[in-house]
Amino acid sequence: MDNIAVTIIIPVYNAEEYLDYMLESLYNQTFKNFEVIIVNDGSNDNSEKIVVRYINKYLNIKYLKQDNQGQAEARNNALSAINGKYTLFLDADDYIESNMLEKMYEKAETMCADITICAYRKVFEYCCKNNPKPIFDADENRIYTNVEVLEMMLEERVKGYLCNKMFLSKSIIENNMHFEKGRIVEDLLPVFKQINMSKRIVFINEPLYNYRQHLRSTLHNKGVKLMDDYYFAYASVCKYARENTKVNRDKYYMFILNTQITMIPNALYLNIKCGKEFYKKYTMEYFCMYEILFKMHILFKHKIKFILFNKFRILHFYYQFKGLVLSLFRGAGKDENKYTTYS
User: Fold this and answer.
1) Mean pLDDT, the chain, as a whole number?
2) Global pTM?
3) Residue-range domains of the chain with CATH
């Protein structure tokens, strides 16, 4: 196929329950000029049978196989096979709206964008949680700079997910996009780097990607490994932002604080002792009291949390007390997952 518009990369590992639904949503697109690279990461279920069925039906699928090395390495192995002008990374257990490719491609072409970001919705399978339509507070009619979007990421107004972002393929190849093998949270730093290396970033406020939430997914296998990988990813972003970007320093400080704070409730949820070694392990940067009080232009309540974490190492008492109060008011059984803050 010549002049391919979009390359779709899909890592697959034991995804038989959802893979067919994802591929159907892809092949029911209103936009047809795309290729698909499927990387089988050592699946031992019926995933390969599903893939072969689609290979026999469609000519635009490249099928790669590897021993089980993780999603990051599956994506890395697919990068050298890209032929499309743009690249989109999808997860095998999610699905997309029928006009996603059309809208993303037209937006990128019209605005000459390096990166096009659409809204997404979370689809919950294990509860009846309300999921209102997510809308970016972004202007669809303008082009954003890298620093603007990086700061939106530091504020978590834009998540570091791969799947709702379409990249100019030339850019990800020239900038050597790479996912770290063995990490669960492997997309945040590569996305952050790619945004920093881009000049023209645009948004679509419509949720075109459906991010399925189920208890078998990687990010719902809670544990110390996930907690450590979450911290590693955010600490890596912190280091990269400090050394390679011109983001607002106060937004940078709040990113550090929010990351450190997240470690506390998740440690309590996992029954990890929040002692001296814990605080040392999860301190992203060391600040003296003077810096916190007089150099950080953030709210005083945030400065107090900084001090409780970085200086006195007692922030966990605040969350233990908060959890106790919530239990008293709501009932202990209703707050089973109150400490789990990963998204």
Assistant:
1) 91
2) 0.90
3) 6-216 (3.90.550.10), 222-335 (no CATH)
